Amino acid sequence: MEKSQELELTQMRKSVQKLGSSTEKFGEPTLMRFLIARSMDADKAAKMFVKWQEWRSTWVPNGFVPESEIGEELEARKIFLQGLSRSGQPLMLAKASKHFPSKDQLQFKKFVIYLLDKTIASSFKGQEIGNEKVIVIFDLQNIGYKNVDTRGLITGFQFLQGALFSRDFWIYMRRSMTISCT
Questions:
Q1: Residues 104 and 167 in one domain
Q2: Parent domain of 170
């Protein structure tokens, strides 16, 4: 690690402490993600880090989402973790035809967090390196209007932007549908 990066990390840790939080449980790769996301500005990165910690403590107070809280979403068997791609990124397959708008939005939000946490955790063994990437393939075969979930899309993208801002997500559509008008 370069000297300038070490200085910014030190400054960020001090800024986080001033904001009443701690970086004790988090390694340098995690903190560097926040610094990179904020163009190496330690104060902005610290604010973002504290906000992220607050978000995590609200949505994931135990550090993980228990499967018992998202049983209905898991039973639908609509998203599968496929292991790692040739380049080592975790690969997730989402079968859109098996998704229906959720009646319980809180459960769906927790399901999205559960999926993202599991997928990201599968990308490293033992210790994160800070630049984990995720590939998502949406299989649109046999999709109908009943499968379209605007709230679900908004929720997913809000979590990607707000909570997992520094992760790279590659999203592919497979067997996309065509709409014809006569």
A1: yes
A2: 67-174
pTM: 0.78
Query: Contact, 134 vs 120, CB < 8 A?
Result: yes
pLDDT above 70 as % of the chain: 86
| Residue bearing the bigger pLDDT, 1 or 178 | 1
d(C-alpha 63, C-alpha 73), whole Å? 20
pLDDT band at 11 (very low <50, low <70, confident <90, very high): very high
Whether 72 and 55 map to the same domain: the answer is no
- What is the token pair recorded at 41? 């500005």
Question: Comparing C-alpha atoms, which of 82, 78, 101, 102 is closest to residue 90?
Answer: 82
Structure tokens at 72: 């209905």
For residue range 21-33, what is the model confidence (pLDDT) as tens digits? Answer: 999 988 888 888 8
Domain of 11: which CATH number?
1.10.8
Rounded CA gap, 36 and 30, in Å?
10
Reading the block at residue 108, the tokens are 């769906």
